[in-house]
């Protein structure tokens, strides 16, 4: 298969990537250009950030987050990495993840901020989940990571936090929330969550790019990433929704992209109106971060854990 762009110029260059839902075959050079152009368009379309703002990129050591850090840095944005060392599976998985992030930070010559959960809170994420009787480590992990991303961003003077959530993630989340008619979550699902009441702006520049496209970008740029996912990910229900959407995508290419884009344009504004217009936020009595309760969920969890030790 020949690269479509090269072919249009009268050149015969083999394609290295075929983007099925766009029916687009591209060589290495033109795929990288296409990918970076898609990211730039998404950033500009949703007014995620500009060249004058520092961007805190949440990095786990996986392909999505490292590719995001790489492309934003290449596009000329002032980026800083942020990694949470969670202490997963006897620290072996977390140690490898941190090492990957540190080496990548050195490669692109950008700073990496590291938060060690065990050192700062006294517990690994698995110890926290087990200590409060939670079998689903992923949900506890998600709560703590969101909390820490915001806490570090505010403390270090970042107005925007970027995450590597891709189209597969967003469409699976959308299907999950639709199946349960989670009006609040549906109203808030968007590529940009603006800063307000002590929360930094959250952005998802990869929201229209598939996992396959991001893997291809990482490989072609020789980005070394953690090829094995988190050991606790098998517990996540999102995998079920991803498999369902993958089946639909195989039969009808473009399903995920249409599902997500049509939701953003047609349905999301309806759900957004259902949200409470005046969300009352308080400062957590323990840590000072924004919360709807007197004490935020992270501090409540840590207090429960300390009380059981």
Automatic annotation (TrEMBL):
The keyword Nucleus does not apply. GO terms for molecular function: 4 iron, 4 sulfur cluster binding; ATP binding; metal ion binding; transferase activity; tRNA binding. Keywords: 4Fe-4S, ATP-binding, Iron, Iron-sulfur, Magnesium, Metal-binding, Nucleotide-binding, Transferase, Zinc. Residues 19-102 form the Rhodanese domain. The keyword 4Fe-4S applies. Coiled coil: none annotated. ATP binds at residues 58-60, 64, 84, 164, 169. CDD domains: TtuA-like. It comes from the Bacteria. One of its GO terms (cellular component) is cytosolic tRNA wobble base thiouridylase complex. Its cofactor is [4Fe-4S] cluster; Mg(2+). One of its GO terms (biological process) is tRNA wobble position uridine thiolation. InterPro entries: Ncs6/Tuc1/Ctu1, Rhodanese-like_dom, Rossmann-like_a/b/a_fold, TilS/TtcA_N, tRNA_thiolation_TtcA_Ctu1, TtuA-like_LIM_N, UPF0021_CS. NCBIfam families: TIGR00269 family protein. This is TIGR00269 family protein. It comes from Balnearium lithotrophicum.
